[in-house]
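User: ok so my PI wants both of these folded by tonight, can you help

Assistant: No problem, let's get them done. Here's the first:
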Amino acid sequence: MRFVQESTEFVAMQQAIAYYRVSTARQGRSGLGIEAQRDAVARFAAVEEFDIAAEFVEVETGKGADALDRRPQLAAALATGRERKCPVIVAKLDRLSRDVAFVAGLMAEKVPFIVAELGREADPFMLHLYAALAEKERRLIAERTRSALAARKAQGARLGNPTNIREAGALGRQTLTEDADAFAVNVMPIIASLQASGVRDLRGLAAALDARGVRTARGGQWHVSNVRNLLIRSGRPRG
């Protein structure tokens, strides 16, 4: 009797970076939307045999061609993908942006993006087309909204509440506070990672954030004061 031993090849799964985004601080705190995106990416990765090596979660609007400056977690995902030479996976294209210029800018980063909803074969040209359609849809919605408001105004309806200036000011300050809190939520995991790697002092953290392409809340470079204020806001030790 002759026994034939079959050889088994073990093929390493390709690594990938997962990126999830929600638009509001409230959604970020509750996890609303994040788990659905994580499930979609996990199912896609299982079918396509990707190993999710790292996850990045962002709380920030996707509007504007300059949105990357306000999305430090996306910048960190790009840096990690570039370092590990692996793609970044998102559940849906709008988790990146509906702005064509922004998507084009991401393509210029030379880090491949895979949209789970569109499939692995969706190349950059297709992503540009889908982004253009999404941008057009957003513009049409905005135009319909403006037309409806103009029609109501023409009919004599009073829009807004100009007498409630104090309440409007308080709401504006609350919005600024929530934006600052959301920015801190996005950046603190990066700072925690830097601290865990041995970067403790404020100047070193500022330099490391700049080196990773992470911008401040106003889109500038980091200084000792920026880092200190962020740590104070987050209730973390200042080093």
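One down. Here's the second:
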Amino acid sequence: MKLSGLLLLAAATSFAQPHVIVISLDGFTPAVLSDPKLPFPVLRKLMREGASAEGMTPINPTVTWPNHTTLVTGVDATRHGLIYNGLPVRGGEGKPVRVEPWVDKTELVQAPTVYDAAHTAGLTTAEVDWVAIYHAPTITWSFPEVPKLQGALEKEMLAAGAVTAEELSMWSKTNNTLHDDVWTRAAVYLIEKHRPNLLLYHLLLTDSVQHQYGAGSLAAHTALILADRQVQRILDAVDRAGIRDSTTVFVLSDHGFQSYQHAIRPNDILRSKGLLRDVDGAVDCDAWTISEGGTAMVYVTRESRREATLRALDSAFQGVPGIAKVIRPAEYAAYGYPDPKKGRMSDLVLVAEPGYAFDGSAAGGGAHGYLNTDPEMNALLVAWGAGIQPGVHLGVLPNVNVAPTIARLLHVPLPGIEGVAIGEFLRK
């Protein structure tokens, strides 16, 4: 090859657009990777060839949407505003507070995201079953949590034979075993067909199985092992797309899991204290709780009785078996909870003892939502591929550091955030 051709090839290689794929295995606890009796060949290979952490500390509350939002913003709930898998909506004076998931990203997420920054920089973005991303204007291609026959990407995949009309039309009648497979096919299709610069891809079977059967159960281990195989499908797609040399892959999770044996139903406690009543088939309440597994949020719902209700709540949860403590607004900043004056946050937070969960199944199961100081809530973090320094293994890192690391690899700005790029992971 002539010198001019070599120079052109070198220039093309130097300026090749980056590709970052973020794979979220919901509820995947990193501790299982140290168990030699469990086969995780793909993740262990990525750890050997890339970089990894002993775990990641999630933000409070340790639930799915708040932590996925931190993973793409680099800030905690005090900045991005997510405290549930959706937006808390007050029903009015004396009415329960509900959580509404189908809220546009521009209203729900109160901080800039790395996919916003990528889009602004002229890069392409894609999501498969990511969360808090509904109708995001900065996502180029979307395969949502609930796909539709009329969706743009769904139509493409139907025409290509990558998904069937029956799979989409029967979505509400099937479970996450099928859904994870379809979501993986969508991610594979996006990689091979569109080669997005940033792909956010989220699987749920690992979460739903652990909720039902508990962390450490045979069913849970089976779901985690299957997730390992799904990661290989993504890596194979990267190779087929011819972008391996320019692709960085993150495999991570949002939180861990722990098993419980006893359930606490805080709204039943409110009912027993006269703070919640059933009137003509409807709920009338001075206070209401939203349970999140290891914690529960308590709202005053009748402003005309706020002071009297707060006094009653001071004693309502004292001495209740399974409630370890009650966190009050003066302590919220220390836990990373938003200021209640901003409108979304509750008036109290209840914390469960180990072995207990709020509003869980009477037969027990698995839960998250416990305080992020609980090491069982720690999340997974593995990075591999372009720009990653091989053989790096660190201790426990805060999950606010993921977004700035992605931004660094994409060469896009993400200023004014809490997190910092994980420099040890990156090639010098």
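The first strand starts at residue 19 and ends at 25. The chain has 15 helices and 20 strands. Good luck tonight!
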